[in-house]
Amino acid sequence: MIGDGLAHVTFGSSAVGLFLKTNPFYVSLPIVIISSLSIMKIIKHTRVYGDSAIGIISSMGIALGVIVASAGGGFI
Questions:
Q1: pTM of the entire structure?
Q2: Residue 18 falls within a domain, yes or no?
Q3: What does the alpha-carbon distance between residue 24 and residue 39 come to, in Å, rounded to a whole number?
Q4: pLDDT score at 73
Q5: Distance (Å, rounded) from C-alpha 57 to C-alpha 2?
Q6: How many domains does the chain fold into?
Q7: Distance from C-alpha of 35 to C-alpha of 52, rounded to nearest angstrom
């Protein structure tokens, strides 16, 4: 499940990279690493189970991607 969750985060961070007109890889890599560490922090410091923490971060990542892609007018 973590791979799927981080893939959604990658979509959001790639949209940010395209919006900033930079290489999406250089934007995505640090954001995905921070997201995975955030998942671990949520699991350790709250009463949230692992799958729920992944869902929280995943939904935030996909929402960010949709918002940025909409604000950028699409990336064609």
A1: 0.84
A2: yes
A3: 22
A4: 76
A5: 10
A6: 1
A7: 14
